[in-house]
Specification:
CATH class of the largest domain: Alpha Beta
Number of domains: 2
CATH topology of the largest domain: Rossmann fold
Strand content: 25-35%
Number of strands: 13
Helix content: 25-40%
Shape: globular
Structural class: alpha/beta
C-alpha cells in the first residue's frame, strides 16, 4: 500500500439496537408497554486501506455487513465508532463536499429521472456537478464509444431494459469524473452480453482515469474479471484481505473428478470412493463428483483406481470453483489469518 491511500478505515464499527418481540397475543400486548432490546454489531472494528487506482472486490453472505460498510463509506450512515478518511474527507461530516468526489451505482436503484429522456437526466447532473460543457461532451462521446448508449439517449428511463439502464447509470455516476466509484451488484439480473459490456467499461475507466472501484457483488465472475484484490466479510468482521490469486493458491487445494457412469450397475462400484479422505457427491443418477485434497492424493493414481472399479462414459478433471471456496469460508470450513 502507498503512504497516502485514497481510503483509510480504522476500527470501524456500526451497532444497531434490535427489538426483541414476544410471541403470541399476550406477548404483543406486553410489547406495547415493555420492550427489550439487544445490540447487533453489523460492522465490528474493521480496518483497511485502498490505494488510488485499485479495483477491490468486497464480498460476504447476506447480513455480513457489506451494505452497512458501503453506507458508512458513502456518508449515508454515521459510524458508532472508528475512523474513515476518504480523499481527505470524513464522509458523514463533510457529506455535501464529499459526494461530489464519488460515484455510486446500486444495481436495483437508479439515479436517473424515471419519466424523462436519459439525455435530460445527464444534463441535469451536469449542472448539479458543475461539469463544463466541453468536459460533458467529451465524456458523453467516450461513454458512447465504450457503452453504446447513443441509441437510447432520447428514450425515457422507464422504457429501458435493465441492461440499458445499468449502462446509463454507470455513465451518470462517472459524468463528473470522480476518483472513487462504489458499485453494489452492478450486474445483477443482466445477461452475459450486458455483463461483459459493463465489465469492459469498468476496465477502461480504471485504466484511462485511474478510477478507484470498490465492488460488492454475489457474482464472483465479476470479481475474477475485474479485481486483483478481494476482501471477505462475515458477521461484521473482515475474514480475508489480500490478492485473489493468493486466496486461490492457499485454499484451492481441492480438485474434483466428475465421472459419468456407463449404467446403474456401476453405482455400487463408485460408492467405495467415499472414504480415505475422498468426498463423493451425486450430481444425477449416473454422474458423480469425487473431491480430494491434491496435496494428499495423486490425480493420476485416483483416475486409475476409478477406471479399475467402474465403467465410465466420460471423465472430467476440474479445479474447485472460487464459488465453492467462498462458501466454505462462510461456513467456517476454511480458515486463515487475515492478510493486511
Amino acid at each position: 500500500m502507498s503512504a497516502d491511500p485514497l481510503i483509510h478505515v480504522k476500527d470501524l464499527s456500526k451497532h444497531f439496537r434490535a427489538f426483541d418481540r414476544r410471541e403470541g397475543i399476550w406477548g404483543s400486548i406486553q410489547n406495547l408497554f415493555v420492550r427489550d432490546y439487544h445490540t447487533v454489531a453489523a460492522v465490528d472494528r474493521i480496518g483497511f486501506t485502498i490505494d488510488r487506482g485499485e479495483m477491490v472486490g468486497y464480498i460476504g453472505p447476506n447480513g455480513a455487513g457489506k451494505s452497512t460498510t458501503i453506507k458508512m463509506l458513502t456518508g449515508i450512515l454515521v459510524p458508532t465508532s472508528g475512523e474513515i478518511l476518504i480523499n481527505g474527507f470524513v464522509p458523514f461530516r463533510q457529506r455535501r463536499q464529499y459526494v461530489k468526489t464519488i460515484g455510486v451505482v446500486f444495481g436495483q436503484r437508479t439515479q436517473l429521472w424515471w419519466d424523462i429522456a436519459v439525455i435530460e437526466s445527464f444534463k441535469l447532473l451536469r449542472r448539479i456537478y458543475d461539469v463544463s460543457q466541453r468536459d460533458f461532451d467529451e465524456r458523453m462521446e467516450r461513454f458512447n464509444e465504450i457503452l453504446g448508449i447513443r441509441d437510447y439517449l432520447r428514450t425515457p428511463v422507464r422504457k429501458l431494459s435493465l441492461g440499458e439502464r445499468m449502462r446509463c447509470d454507470l455513465a451518470a455516476a462517472l459524468l463528473h469524473n470522480p476518483p472513487l466509484l462504489f458499485l453494489d451488484e452492478p450486474t445483477i439480473g443482466l445477461d452475459v452480453v450486458a455483463k461483459e459490456h459493463i465489465r469492459h467499461f469498468l476496465r477502461a475507466v480504471n485504466r484511462e482515469f485511474r478510477t478507484t472501484v470498490l465492488l460488492t457483488t454475489h457474482d464472483l465472475d465479476d470479481i475474477e474479471e475485474l479485481c486483483h484484490r478481494l476482501m471477505i466479510i462475515d458477521h461484521g468482521r473482515v475474514l480475508y484481505d489480500g490478492p485473489l490469486d493468493q486466496l486461490k493458491e492457499r485454499l484451492l487445494r481441492t480438485k474434483q473428478i466428475k465421472c459419468v457412469l456407463k449404467d446403474r450397475a456401476q453405482v455400487a462400484g463408485i460408492s467405495v470412493f467415499s472414504r480415505d479422505g475422498l468426498v463423493l457427491d451425486q450430481v444425477d443418477p449416473l454422474t458423480y463428483r469425487i473431491r480430494f485434497d491434491r496435496t494428499k492424493v495423486a490425480t493420476t493414481d485416483l483416475i486409475r483406481k476409478i477406471l479399475a472399479a467402474v465403467e465410465v462414459r466420460d471423465l472430467l478433471i476440474e479445479d474447485e470453483s472460487i464459488e465453492e471456496v467462498v462458501k466454505r469460508i462462510y461456513a467456517g470450513e476454511a480458515t486463515f489469518e487475515v492478510s493486511l
